[in-house]
Amino acid sequence: MRLLLVEDDNHVAAALSAVLARHGFDVTHARSGEEALQALVPESAGFGVVLLDLGLPDQDGYEVCGKIRKRTSTPVIMVTARADVRSRIHGLNLGADDYVVKPYDTGELLARIHAVSRRTVHEEPSAGGEDALHLGSVRIELPTRQVSVDGATIQLTRKEFDLLALLAQRPGVVFRREQIISEVWRTSWEGTGRTLEVHVASLRAKLRMPALIETVRGVGYRLVAPAA
């Protein structure tokens, strides 16, 4: 897999590139946001993942993430020292697929890279063969991966849509955390659990329906269908 590493510290980049190379990655190193954006044009450059450090010398890392998402669908993993949920949600809202908090374990980083690279690009229709799901004022278009509330389109990231579509296909049914992680992230790695929590929080905020996704303590989540 080709991987774009966006990191301004040459020593950190060299050490990480060596580790990634030993695990079969073909690493391209960009030292700034502008270098990263240039490397991603055209999208046929063929990168499987972008590993984006937020501490860049020329541009704010969040801004770079937003620009990357506008020009390519390549998965983006943010690397940040900010551990608070608000910062993570902000990154996800800009289109990041995942995040790693410094200092991180190399095994954790590799697991997250493999998890986002295994994502499903096209979702299959629901079991009932429906093309759209209606939940009160919420409409979920499965073929086009569009979500709207009261007719207004809501911009969701890939994983946010995957999570919402999964829960919405069986309203009221409790999905175990392990099941959600397996179906949405295509992994059984336990560290993805925190990512799930952040995606749920982001969905609640974007849809402006805090009660839409209910937390079932010790088990998982379920979607509570709103009144029509």
UniProtKB/TrEMBL annotation:
The keyword Heme is annotated on this UniProt entry: no
GO molecular-function terms, A-Z: phosphorelay response regulator activity; transcription cis-regulatory region binding
GO cellular component assignments: cytosol; protein-DNA complex
Gene Ontology BP terms: regulation of DNA-templated transcription
Record's keyword annotation contains Transferase: no
Pfam families per UniProt: Response_reg, Trans_reg_C
Protein name per UniProt: Sensory transduction protein RegX3
Organism for this UniProt entry: Streptomyces lucensis JCM 4490
